[in-house]
Each structure stands twice: as structure tokens, then as C-alpha cells.
């Protein structure tokens, strides 16, 4: 029932009950101070991608919310303490590269992590996380027309023919 209200009628039977890139809406509360940061730069400015823990009403596992990029010098985005409805896109992260299987015992928050690893974060919290995150911001979709694809293909086929003719000419006059 909760899943149906979370994603409507679109469902996926895999590791996650929600299909990748599905529009979702979750209602619940942010867990204050439970935030993870991953080093990211944007247009040459150093900063972090910020993830916050969210406990959705009626949903068993806590969900990570991708709250976007912040500059390193900026203060962290504070989380509202009241009940919130978060709308975004469900994203199932790929398998992370683990540099260490050690769980960070540091009690200071926010935690700076090398990559998004939901299993390791769940181990830090002592509870399993939802297998998807909710992205609240989207990057613009870059669309290239079919004519540009065909022109690019023609260009590379032309280069291939020129190289082949050059090679045949080289062998012939050698």
C-alpha cells in the first residue's frame, strides 16, 4: 500500500521495489544532523554533494535524499525539523568502489565519504538503508538531433575510407 502511494502504479521486481528514475513522493522527517558529503567540484569551485537521512512514514528503511551541491565554504543546508513531503526521482546507485571495508567510528557529523555506498552507510547507522536514493534536483537532459549523429557517423566513416585508401596507395607505390 505504501509502495503504491510512493510510486503510483510503476514498480520493479529487483533489488529495489522501485524502478530507476521513477518519480517519487515521500512524506516523513529528516533525521537532524545525519548528513554525508562527497567531494565534488562544480565549474572549478570545490564543494560537496550533500546527502541527508530521511525517515518516510510507513516505509521500513530510512532513505537517503540527495540534496544537491554546496560550496566547501558554504554552511551546510539545514534540514527542516517538521514533517516534509519530498518530491524527486528515485535513483539506484551502482556498486561503489570500496577503498576500505572499515566502518567510520567517528561520531562527528557530517561524515565525508569517498563514494555513495548505501551498505556501508547502513552499517554506520546500524540499520539497512533503502536500496534507492531520492534526487531532488535534476541535471538538464542533453538532446542531440539524429542529423548530428548521422553527420558524426559520416565523418568517421569518411576518415576510415581515407585511411584505407591511403594504406592501399602506400602498399601499391612501395
Strands, helices and their partners?
Elements (H helix, E strand, L loop, with lengths): L1 H6 L15 E20 L2 E12 L6 E9 L12 E8 L19 E2 L5 H8 L7 E3 L10 H27 L2
Parallel strand pairs: 1-5, 3-6
Antiparallel strand pairs: 1-2, 1-4, 2-3, 4-6
Task: Give a brief outline of the structure.
The chain has 174 residues and is of the alpha/beta class.
Task: Tell me about this structure.
The chain is built from three helices and six strands. 24% of the residues lie in helices and 31% in strands. The chain has helices at 2-7, 118-125, 146-172, and strands at residues 23-42, 45-56, 63-71, 84-91, 111-112, 133-135. The chain has 174 residues and is an alpha/beta fold. It is elongated. It has a five-stranded mixed β-barrel. The relative contact order is 0.18. A hairpin with a 6-residue loop joins strand 2 (45-56) and strand 3 (63-71).
Amino acid at each position: 500500500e505504501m509502495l503504491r502511494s510512493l510510486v503510483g502504479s510503476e514498480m520493479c521486481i529487483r533489488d529495489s521495489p522501485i524502478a530507476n528514475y521513477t518519480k517519487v513522493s515521500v512524506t516523513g522527517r529528516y533525521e537532524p544532523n545525519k548528513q554525508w558529503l562527497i567531494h565534488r567540484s562544480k565549474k572549478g569551485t570545490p564543494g560537496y554533494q550533500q546527502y541527508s537521512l530521511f525517515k518516510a512514514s510507513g516505509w521500513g528503511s530510512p532513505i537517503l535524499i540527495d540534496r544537491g551541491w554546496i560550496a566547501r565554504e558554504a554552511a551546510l543546508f539545514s534540514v527542516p525539523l517538521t514533517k516534509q513531503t519530498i518530491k524527486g526521482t528515485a535513483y539506484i546507485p551502482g556498486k561503489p568502489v570500496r577503498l576500505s571495508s572499515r566502518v567510520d567510528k567517528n561520531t562527528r557529523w557530517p561524515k565525508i565519504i569517498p563514494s555513495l555506498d548505501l551498505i556501508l552507510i547502513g552499517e554506520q547507522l546500524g540499520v539497512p538503508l533503502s536500496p534507492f536514493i531520492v534526487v531532488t534536483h535534476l541535471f538538464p537532459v542533453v538532446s542531440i538531433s539524429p542529423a548530428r549523429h548521422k553527420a558524426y557517423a559520416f565523418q568517421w566513416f569518411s576518415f576510415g575510407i581515407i585511411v584505407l585508401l591511403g594504406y592501399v596507395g602506400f602498399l601499391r607505390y612501395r
